[in-house]
Design a protein that fits this description.
heterodimer, A: mainly alpha, B: alpha/beta, six-stranded mixed β-sheet, disordered C terminus
Chain lengths: 279, 249
């Protein structure tokens, strides 16, 4: 860890990596609670994996993989949203199908593209150390957009997540609000691809929020807690991976999993202490 | 006096299914407490959701205070049949009730001072003020149901629609909620779906029996043969004439 701290003071690439981790954590903290509340981790997983289709096509055409990922994420989010709204009986099956078909399309296009190797691995499993200045600007832009929309519509998100029928009775445009929420999930997935890669994205979105949901007493507390925990996990994961030269993405995810396990343990202990006291 | 609710020639079918409501006519007076009773699948919930503007009729029309339901959402309160799953949610009673102030796209709905005051008044109306800071998962079934009622009341509705509001709670909590509902009339018009004839007889001004057709009776007309007809698989055989005494609408 000392080596990491020393390098952090001197190495620009490491400073950018830490900044990327913090920006990604803000997105996780803003969207993770809604994935949890709305119970849509499967849908979000489908979006994350299907993104490979867009990236593969972008690789093949020589375009920006991140742009391909963004377009694919938004298209898949809208598809999944329409399936949920108008074909709910088939939702589970079709989300799974989109998950696999997206990956298959991506792998086929990547297979047909010469010299893809290293880049592909960095998008599948992330490589936070390769984050450039433009990536940071892109992440900042997405964070700003997510923050603005969540700030404006969080009550609508809560209303449709709790009870769609009641939301409709209040004239809330349930379909539009749901599609906007899915769109934000899609953008957050893209935000995290550079940090942990699309295979590991869901853990970073859900685990900090899940850990904080055991203690939070409001959506605001959950959002702040999940953001802070995600920031701690990404920075700690980056630090732990630095000296032994481990891949940063998987290390960050394991730190998140450990934080969740710790939170769960504390929560169980708290409840055991409270129950005898109540008796 | 103009009715609070006027329904004429209402027809509704779920997609790909036979109509559950056909040629339905009904007037509900302002301040009336109307109970709706009938077997599962008779269209009780559909009727409530049509009034709440959650569903749209296939034919016929509904007027709420002289206007279509879509234009009167701001003065309709709705309590759904199933309470939402709340165990995983970090949401307090006051947050839940505040959602009742949301309307359409209004981004800050529920956040203004007037909204907060109205939500507090709704909590007081269901005697839940002391539990405002509690998480929903810390409530009993009856308390959660009262919180959902407060969410509906937060809009200060002229028409309150409840779909089996006490289906999942114990008898003591059930009695408390029905007493609260009774107190809400005549300031509000209350329409409640229930399978409990004793509660409907005790509290409702009139009872609408929905079983293929609609028959509206006075509470004292809900005797055993009428109840038997209301749940009969052969509603085309009419109920005893005595039961229909006092019916209107």
């Amino acid at each position: 860890m000392t080596a990491f701290l020393d390098a952090l003071l001197n190495q620009a690439f490491l400073q950018r990596a830490v900044a990327a981790g913090l920006l990604a954590s803000l997105g996780c903290g803003l969207i993770g609670p809604w994935v949890l509340i709305r119970r849509m981790s499967h849908l979000a997983g489908g979006i994350a994996h299907a993104v490979l289709g867009g990236m593969g096509i972008a690789f093949f055409l020589g375009g920006s993989p991140l742009l391909g990922a963004t377009l694919a994420a938004v298209v898949v989010a809208l598809l999944i949203g329409f399936i949920h709204l108008y074909w709910e009986a088939q939702e589970d099956l079709l989300t799974g199908a989109l998950w696999s078909v997206g990956m298959a399309v991506g792998l086929l296009f990547i297979y047909r593209t010469p010299g893809y190797g290293t880049d592909l691995m960095s998008y599948l499993f992330g490589n936070i150390l390769l984050v450039g200045r433009q990536d940071l600007l892109f992440m900042l832009l997405i964070d700003g957009l997510v923050l603005a929309v969540v700030g404006l519509l969080h009550r609508h998100f809560l209303a449709i997540s709790l009870d769609e029928a009641f939301a409709r009775s209040r004239g809330i445009p349930v379909a539009a609000v749901y599609l906007i929420l899915l769109g934000l999930v899609a953008l957050t997935v893209v935000l995290l691809i550079r940090v942990v890669g699309l295979i590991l994205v869901m853990a970073l979105v859900t685990l900090p929020a899940a850990a904080c949901s055991l203690f939070a007493r409001s959506i605001a507390a959950l959002t702040l807690g999940a953001t802070a925990l995600a920031m701690a996990c990404t920075t700690l994961g980056l630090g732990l991976s630095y000296a032994p030269d481990w891949p940063a993405g998987p290390t960050i995810i394991l730190v998140c999993a450990a934080a969740y396990a710790l939170a769960l343990g504390v929560n169980v202990l708290q409840r055991r202490v409270r129950v005898p006291a109540a008796r | 006096m103009n009715p609070a609710v006027r329904i004429r020639g209402l027809r509704f079918a779920h997609p790909g299914q036979a109509p559950v409501l056909q040629d339905l006519d009904l007037d509900i007076a302002p301040g009336e407490f109307l109970g709706i009773l009938g077997p599962n699948g008779a269209g009780k919930s559909s009727l409530i959701q049509l009034l709440a503007s959650i569903l749209r009729p296939d034919a016929g029309h509904i007027d709420i205070l002289g206007r279509p339901p879509r234009e009167m959402r701001h003065c309709i309160g709705y309590v759904p049949q199933q309470p939402p799953p709340v165990r995983h949610l970090p949401i307090t009673v006051s947050t839940l009730v505040g959602l009742g102030r949301l309307h359409g796209w209004r981004p800050l709905g529920g956040a203004r001072r007037a909204d907060r005051e109205r939500a507090q008044a709704a909590l007081a109306e269901v005697e839940l003020t002391a539990l405002a800071p509690r998480l929903l998962r810390e409530l009993s079934g009856g308390e959660l149901q009262r919180a959902l009622l407060a969410r509906a009341l937060a809009a200060d509705p002229a028409l309150l629609l409840l779909d089996e509001p006490t289906a999942h709670i114990d008898p003591a909590a059930e009695s408390r909620i029905w007493a609260l509902l009774r107190r809400m009339t005549p300031a509000r018009t209350v329409v409640v779906v229930s399978h409990d004839p004793a509660l409907l007889t005790a509290h409702a001004d009139r009872i609408a029996l929905l079983n293929g057709t609609l028959r509206v009776i006075a509470p004292d007309g809900l005797d055993a043969p009428t109840l038997q007809w209301a749940y009969s698989r052969h509603p085309e055989i009419p109920p005893p004439a005595r039961a229909l005494r006092g019916a209107a609408g």
